[in-house]
Protein: Alpha/beta hydrolase
Amino acid sequence: MRFISETSSGGVPEQLFTLGDIPGVLWTPEGAVATRPLVLMGHGGGQHKKAPDVLARARRFVTECGFAVVAVDVPAHGDRPKIEDYDRIATENQARVEAGEELAPLIAGFQALVARQTVPEWRAVLDAVQQLAHVGVGPVGYWGVSLGCGLGVPFVAAEPRVRAAVLGLGGALASAEAAARITVPVEFLVQWDDERVPRVQSLALFDALASAEKTLHANPGKHGEIPAFELESTLRFFARHLG
Amino acid sequence: MRFISETSSGGVPEQLFTLGDIPGVLWTPEGAVATRPLVLMGHGGGQHKKAPDVLARARRFVTECGFAVVAVDVPAHGDRPKIEDYDRIATENQARVEAGEELAPLIAGFQALVARQTVPEWRAVLDAVQQLAHVGVGPVGYWGVSLGCGLGVPFVAAEPRVRAAVLGLGGALASAEAAARITVPVEFLVQWDDERVPRVQSLALFDALASAEKTLHANPGKHGEIPAFELESTLRFFARHLG
Structure:
């Protein structure tokens, strides 16, 4: 793990790093020295580790909960090189949708492909970040919707350090099998008028989760329109399970 | 409106009253003198105005939010006399379920019948309570699940003073038409394994609400097993919309 820069943004220390060829960012409370809960955040499709919504959420987790937050670029996103296979699949999928195929199964197939790479990457990121003195081996949470859900479900299923997860904007096609191996508390976000994930698929993914405590929050609006008050709920959810 | 007793329970002043032949209870903060938000709570089937869960919720609303809370017995519940027609319908429904009929439409039909009486009663209760100096004409909220949803949906639809409502454990059969006239913010509770209200009916009632802000919270478990953390969410919901 190699640190590239250390700055502070809005009172929140921010460290850019690389782990092998994975570019990442770590946010921690000002003056942090001891072990604390760590939240790994997965970004959305076409976004990156410092997308505005990731950054806004990270700052709240750090300043209001005292958590550490880490985010890395998904392959072919942010500061990572393009991947020809991914570009080819995206172009093919675009053509298939134009020819009348359903979008959801194509998204699901793509996310399953990417997850095979990101699950081990994210586990390695946890290994590395938890060795830092100002993070340490505390409880781990995961936050990710949309692509961050498609990649997050297999990650949470595979990683016993994760004790609670916020997931959503994702369907059963991508990851119902992995969801059935998740037993930690989950807060699951659904957009009632999601134009990318059919409602029935969202409900089926929630249904598939094996967690004894899981709570579905559905709100009107399209894929990208999660209301601001859900962030308040997320903060309390993580505070309850990681704090 | 006639006050029968004035006591204090756990630091929360409690006034029993009758309004005509409707027995009710009003909780207000200690030493309250001015106008404040008022929450009307509808109790569940077979319960009454001072059922333990109503009381627990009322105390939190009063002590944490400074609200006034009012609850009255539904006809044929609590301190109100039995109603022969209701008893007859209940007996008939029991026989029809045993003969293989579905329960949900029978519950829905019964709730629609009772609502024709409770909607005007509850509106009269608001009129009376808001004339009290320690309540006044502030914003009004409604809380009710199960029977409290079946009666609450037509009440909220009819009563423009209600600015926000928590509803749930109810289905579209009872009240989809009234739901389509509700435009205030709603938090809607669904029990994922509800043995009384089919999941598809719950989702359809949420869908029918015309509110621009409505949020569905679904949790695993049976009809009566809403998790305790939903009360925290309810408190914040009302604080946001009535506070």
Summary: The CA atoms of residues 9 and 182 of chain B lie 35 Å apart.
